[in-house]
Specification:
It contains twelve helices and twelve strands. It is α/β, with parallel strands linked by helices. Helix 1 packs across helix 12, helix 5 crosses helix 7 and helix 9 packs parallel to helix 12. The longest helix is centred in the C-terminal third of the chain and has 16 residues. It is globular and about 55 Å long. Pfam families: IU_nuc_hydro (PF01156).
Length: about 325
């Protein structure tokens, strides 16, 4: 008896590393290793309509025009939207720009995409690589929403670790802190969220040399034409931040962990996010010593096999190039 392939719904905000994650998922989908059933987007790196247009373009380039894409909520739950063009470029794709969608209009209701996927699949895996806005809103209107998913994996937080947006906060949680706080209050003890925070994800670095290797694997694939312009912007941003001419690819590593494609370590714990403090907005904390005595709501990823992740990156893009 063989295990069924994972069914994946991704909620993202492309965004450069989100685009690499989508390309990786497309490769696995074409190879029959997963079934990608939908992509919804949040406002984060850029506005929600733009992130949806970016996702639609990436999927079309990857011959996945049948996979639905829908923009989600245009604003965080309670705070004003802040985007990050200095990190991902004016349209979220570095020096590249997505054309107008060539397939379906981007007017589908994101909630409908989620509901259809949940109704059709008993073990749906949700991967969130942007702010948690859509998930928190879905949980507000659907009783025991988290329990309907087979698994939830989130890229977010700087858990007991230095931030990349403020001294203590990571970007996704800072953009919509109330959504992140609400989600972690609502999940225990139904479906513990697998949380991939900065301490682990920033270790997955793409260098110009590794990009060159990926470009060779892609060959004549349509995405190869624009990928250098996308990544060059990201390299330059990280260099300006003192990180060197390379890029942290948080969202791609998160997808690999979500799908169990690399070895990693995780601790069952309780995660909380601060939403209202001006100085500590978006700060995430894990109660690793059980001081709070509260039910666990998360599987906090504490380590991952980074070299294996690079090998899996290459494998996924090889699969993509062959379809």
């Amino acid at each position: 008896m063989t295990a069924s392939r994972p069914v994946v719904l991704i909620d993202c905000d492309p965004g450069i590393d989100d685009c690499l994650a989508l390309m990786y998922l497309a490769g696995l989908h074409h190879a029959g290793e997963i079934e990608l059933v939908g992509v919804t987007t949040t406002a984060g790196n850029v506005e929600a309509d733009q992130t949806a247009a970016n996702a639609r373009w990436i999927l079309d380039l990857c011959s996945l025009s049948q996979v639905p894409v829908a923009p989600g909520l245009p604003q965080p739950l309670k705070v004003e939207l802040t985007t990050t063009p200095e990190t991902h470029g004016p349209t979220g794709l570095g020096y590249a720009t997505a054309p107008a969608p060539a397939t379906e209009p981007l007017h589908r209701d994101w909630r409908q995409v989620w509901e259809e996927a949940l109704a059709a699949h008993d073990d749906l895996q949700l991967i969130v690589t942007g702010p948690v806005t859509n998930l928190a809103a879905f949980e507000e209107t659907h009783s025991k929403a988290a329990a309907r998913f087979g698994a939830i994996t989130i890229m977010g937080g700087a858990v007991n670790y230095r931030g990349n947006t403020t001294p203590t906060a990571e970007w996704n949680f800072w953009v919509d802190p109330h959504a992140a706080a609400q989600h972690f209050r609502s999940t225990a003890p139904q479906v513990p969220t697998t949380l991939c925070s900065l301490e682990v994800t920033e270790q997955f670095l793409l260098t110009p040399q590794r990009l060159g290797e990926v470009m060779e694997l892609l060959g004549q694939h349509p995405a190869a034409e624009f990928l250098p312009d996308v990544l060059r912007f990201y390299f330059e941003f990280h260099q300006e931040q003192g990180e060197g001419y390379q890029a942290q690819i948080h969202d791609l590593l998160t997808c690999m962990i979500a799908l169990g494609r690399i070895n990693y370590k995780a601790a069952e714990t309780t995660v909380a996010v601060e939403a209202d403090s001006p100085l500590l907005r978006g700060t995430s904390v894990a109660d690793l010593r059980n001081h709070w005595g509260r039910a666990h709501n998360a599987r906090l990823v504490t380590a991952a096999d980074i070299e294996a992740a690079h090998q899996e990156f290459a494998r996924g893009f090889t699969l993509l190039a062959s379809h």
